[in-house]
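User:
Note these C-alpha cells:
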Amino acid sequence: MVRAQHPISTLEDFCTQLRRHGLKATKQRLAVHGAMMELEHASADMVREKLALEGSKVTSASVYNILSQLADYHIYNRRLSATNKMFFDVDGSKHIHLYDRENHCYRNLIDEELSTLVASHLKRRRFKGFTVEDIDIQIIAKPTRKKKKI
C-alpha cells in the first residue's frame, strides 16, 4: 500500500489553512503543528512532551486547545481511543485507521479498494431518521507479535 502525501505537506500549506479560517500563525500553533507533522497521530500530552524535549514551554491545556481548534476547522481530525483518550490526526485526507489496542496508537491504512467498497455499499443503504454525512473507518486490532525486550 502506498502512503498518500499529506494534504498539509509544507509550513506554507499550514499557514494558508490558518489564514483561510482567520487564524494567525502564532509561535505556539507553528510549534504544535511541527510536532504533529512528526508524530502524525498524537494526544495533547504526547505533543506537549515532544515540545518540552525541544525546549518549548507550552502547557497541556494550550496544546489541547490548539489541537481542538485545528480539528474544529477540519485542518486536523480527532480520534477517540479505546481508553477514551483524544488523539489528533494531522492527515485530513480520507483514509482508514488501524488502532493498536495494546499499545494505544494509530496507523494510517491506505486501502482504496476497501474504502470504495464500503462507500458504495453505504450509498445504497438508508438509515431511518439519519442522513449519512461521512464515513470514518477504524479497525481495532492487536499486534500479532510481542515486542522484543531491549
The domain at 94-144 is CATH 3.30.1490 (Dna Ligase; domain 1). Residues 1-5 have pLDDT under 50 and may be disordered.
